[in-house]
Specification:
This protein is α/β, with parallel strands linked by helices and 299 residues long. It has an eight-stranded mixed sheet, with helices on both faces. It contains 13 helices and eight strands.
Length: 299
């Protein structure tokens, strides 16, 4: 693919984001989206521009979203956190509103390499705090393993992929699975499953944000490529001596009771169970989660 073609695809991606942003129903989502900067990375990523939310001043916090999500996942804690910190919320490589033409194969190693290049580009190489949600929790542990001298503290929110082994999903099952995840009823069901009390907490705004990035060109192929790679698994082995606090909802139907029990048994994870909370503490209990994050990082 020529440089001009990459630029056209990148510009098309940015145009899609700007259009999607205007359609957001959730005012907190729009507030967050208005702080997006498009950061140009080096030739490793075809000199493309990537969406990164940046706001606030002070110590730097990097927020890492979960599988098949976007930076919009952090809409309910962003405004509070940016009062006391510089908050950086990238879309992970191959997810959210990222240009899907950045790489032909999406795998954990490339996601980590992307984050390291982004951290270096933004000069966030000292005393960086990380919050990782769901799959973002596994990514936080692997990232800290790769650049331990740059990381100060970590908070994990319902971390997924800490145990087990990667399981590659071969072609064509990876493509079929990705297509299935794109079905409106499947998206709606997954969105509801993530919340502790979906009948009370899930409406049109939540369902829109859970699916809005699916309109990005190349969404299905990126998801299929990641599935083929096996994704993140067994990342508890990357735990360092960096301080960690882990929050999990006691009503988490995504992780399940066995996985939560395994997490609680790892002493270094400093497990905290949250009542009346599902897989998304930063959404189900946003005020409490924000307070815990700020108190821990300001200690």
């Amino acid at each position: 693919m020529t440089k001009n073609n990459f630029e056209k695809l990148n510009n098309s991606n940015i145009e899609f984001f700007e259009s999607a942003k205007l359609s957001l129903l959730d005012p907190l989502g729009l507030y967050l989206a208005n702080d997006v900067k498009w950061i140009k990375l080096n030739q490793n990523w075809n000199s493309l521009k990537f969406p990164v939310v940046m706001g606030g001043k002070g110590q730097s916090i990097l927020l890492l979203h979960g599988f098949d999500s976007s930076f919009l996942e952090f809409r309910r804690i962003y405004k509070s956190l940016k009062k006391n910190f510089q908050v950086i919320v990238p879309d992970l490589l191959g997810f959210g509103f990222c240009p899907r033409c950045a790489t032909n194969e999406l795998n954990p190693s490339k996601i980590i390499s992307y984050l390291i290049d982004l951290i270096n580009t933004l000069k966030l190489t000292k005393n960086l705090k990380i919050v990782g949600a769901s799959m973002g929790g596994s990514i936080a542990l692997k990232l800290a393993f790769e650049i331990p001298d740059s990381i100060d503290k970590i908070i994990l929110l319902s971390p997924a992929g800490l145990f087990g082994e990667p399981k590659s999903i071969p072609f064509p099952l990876n493509q079929i699975g990705a297509s299935f995840l794109g079905l409106p009823q499947v998206r709606k069901s997954l969105c509801r499953q993530a919340f502790a009390f979906p009948d009370e907490c899930v409406g049109e705004m939540e369902e829109q944000i859970a699916s809005i990035h699916l309109g990005c060109k190349g969404w299905r192929n990126s998801l299929a490529s990641f599935a083929k790679s096996g994704g993140f698994a067994g990342t508890h082995k990357y735990i360092q001596n960096i301080p960690i606090k882990t929050l999990c909802g006691e009503n988490d139907r995504i992780l399940g009771k066995k996985e939560i029990r395994n997490i609680s048994n790892v002493e270094k994870l400093n497990f905290v169970g949250l009542q009346k909370c599902g897989h998304l503490p930063h959404l189900d209990l946003s005020s409490l989660s924000s307070k815990i994050i700020q108190d821990y990082f300001l200690e």
